Amino acid sequence: MQPFLVDGFVILIYFVLVIGIGLYKGRGSKDMDAFAIGDRNIPWWAVLASIIAAETSAGTFLGAPGEGYTHRNFTYAQLAIGTILARIIIGYLFIKPFYDYRVVSIYEFLNIRFGVRTKNAASAVFLITRALASGTRLYVGAIILVLGYEMISGETLTLMQELWVYVIALTFITVATAIYTTLGGIKAVVWTDVIQATVMFGGLGFAIWSLHGHLPEGISGALSKLTAPKDLAFFDTGINSELSFTGNLRVILETQYTIWAALFGATFLTMATHGTDQDMVQRMLTAKDYKKSRFAVILSGITDLPLVGAFLLIGILLWCFYGEAGKQNSFAYYILHEMPSGVRGLLVAGVFATAMGSLSTALNALATSFTEDFYTPYINPKASPAQVVRSARITTVVFSVLLIIIGALTAYAALVLKSDIIPIILGIFGYTYGSLLGIFLVGMLTRRRGSEIGNLIAMLVGFLVTSLFSGLHNAIWQLLQGDATVILWAPDWLPTVAFVWRVMIGTIATVLVALLFRTPPEQVDSAERLRAQAGEKPLGGEA
Fold this sequence. Notes:
The chain is built from 23 helices and no strands. It has helices at about 1-25, 30-35, 45-55, 60-70, 80-100, 105-115, 115-140, 145-155, 160-215, 220-225, 245-255, 260-275, 280-285, 290-320, 330-340, 345-380, 385-415, 420-425, 430-445, 450-470, 470-480, 500-515, 520-535.
């Protein structure tokens, strides 16, 4: 028991440090510019660390090594090519308009460009999608606490006991995160993200060093034993010379990790998650100007490649250590059973760091979006700056409770119902963010295309097309029937596309429909007047 007391002390020190620094750095947030965008006064390197911490969830920290363990290669990492390309596009296309219009919620841009209904629809899509996705990921972040409880107690928990431990764990993580997020706003989020990114990088480095010591022949000797055709591969074209063009196209669309998915699917996916999601863009808007924000965004993409490579290397080394007899959640199991006392506590803190980093930004973004897009214009239009900030803080607490409930329901579905709904919710942004990205692209690349009604139709079409090609109708039908083999409708011509392609398909469908409609002249004039007030040229180019 004594070693675990040391680990517990390390974890306690971590939480005290994070909450204390978060509250200190976030003091004095008296208006929404301070609460939501930190008065645009955050150094670029802190913005960079915050982006990395936000996009690396506990699911990534524990799940990405699982990709290396399962496939024993680096093909997952090739998706980083698309993330780099996407961030270059985001840096040069998205960031400057957000700064020009001085928006706090990025969906205010859509209000300026198209009108209030487009803004409300986009913000609602974000609120629903982000709440479901972040709540579900809470379940993943609680896994290591459940495993640790079983290890310390020596008990094998029943399903209901395990469920209650999950609920307690995710409540603990959420409450700890909500304390500094509610009181400190985005400043607290960014500066605690810096700490959490540092802990995460340190934890990954030590994990690789530890595995090197546990493998008799070291890392190079272990890797030399991998002899399967795709072992340690990085690129995979997914092309089979024996198939026709259409046959290969179908295989590529149904495969997650190929170079084509990296160049196209991952590019659209990252453009959506990092360019149209308030959760991610909000921290980009805290930099002093759009050039520093652009630099941080692009550099975060470049950093992704070695980061993902480290996760995959850990997974491959875990396979070399455990072999085929490895356990589910092997990285979490290794941390708890093989790491020395104290260091084990630091690695567990690393898991908390990733969970809290992505959670804190989600809470702040959800509160900001609701307050700016719904509270201020509809609930209390005459609110003072202090009232607006108070609303944002109350909303943060409300969303914290909501995410705990979603996380608990996710744990219930996974443990008790043995349901396949988890992949649906984890990948929900793939169904909806193509619609968001499509509307933003039309708004930024054209001057006179897209209208209120047309955008709503386009977003609906984007969602329906994505759902059709991803087989969502069959997944829902199987849940209703309780039979994973039942198919509602799947003609031979219809591929079931991998998650990485969903956003691209939804974006293309949304753009094609939105371009059919023309922006009213008065809306174009209003948008250009606002841009002119910032001393800039008119929106985009003609279409």
